[in-house]
Here is the input.
Amino acid sequence: MKRLVSILLTAFILIAPSSAFAWGDDGHQTVGKIASLRIKPRTAQQISQILKPGETLANIATWADSVKERVGKTDPDPDTNSFLQDIAHNEKNREWHYDDLPLNCKNYQTCTGFTPDNDIVHMLNICIRTLQGYPDPDHPLSQRNALKLLVHFLGDIHQPLHVGCGFIDVNGPNRKIVIARDPALIKQKNLPSDRGANQLIINNDRRNLHSFWDFDLVTSLMLATDKQTSDILGQYLKETVKPKSSWNTHGPIGTWAAQWATDSLHLSRDSTYKSVNIIRQRTITVMTRNGQPVMRDGQPVTDVVYDVTRAPNYEAVNREVVREQLAKAGFRLAELLDAIYSQ
Ligand SMILES: [Zn+2]
Here is the structure.
């Protein structure tokens, strides 16, 4: 989940059990594992010079989530500490993990007004340039931190809900609440986003749709394939999911992230939001992970959420989307690291 607070309907009905992680740890680690099996020896050797002993592409893949809430605090690791202490540059690092692009934008480049300078595409390009030896003065990052961010963002940008996003129109046709897709309409009506489907509630209050993609579909894939760890799942996907020609990225390395974003945007449009319909709006009390109401100025903080319905085969269909996205992200991460270090 990608916003400030976990949303729980009540103390006993959990929607977002671990809000800090996107794709979930398993998803990110699977992507790192696949890449580690695909990179060239020279790339692996260069990476080992940057990372500390014991660090792998799989076990650094969740570092970016671990620093989201800790800016200003201290950490025993010198690189992590310097990141956390650089409040001026890193305070908004949670915004680096995603875009909120309307579903009917044709592609990333033409989605004007929805691609801020600190979105996932810009940050991926900053990490790439930093690793190539050209650090960005607005985002000073050590090589090690840049590599950790890059590995994580490769995972995030392949989670469709980190790119494509619904916008809520409470005055839709026939006075229905609808998910708006058209960028011009969204701008004209100044519609609010559904925060990467974090505000869309599924399964009788149990889950929001963003968490379903981060956690449930990855778990569903692990169960369906009988692979109990991300390490084993990564190995299995590398061996069984054959790369497609459409996975290849073309042109200069600085355009790759935008191409990947466009790919995920189309998946959001064609798969993630397919068959998803809002049935009602509700106001809920925002709870902490411990089940206590979040208070501000003596009052409980509230949020608006939307109950949605989905097609009965939604999980089965999208489990296959996740299977391909994890394999594809690992493939592209290896491709990118080879382009940086072995060419
Ligand atoms: Zn993330």
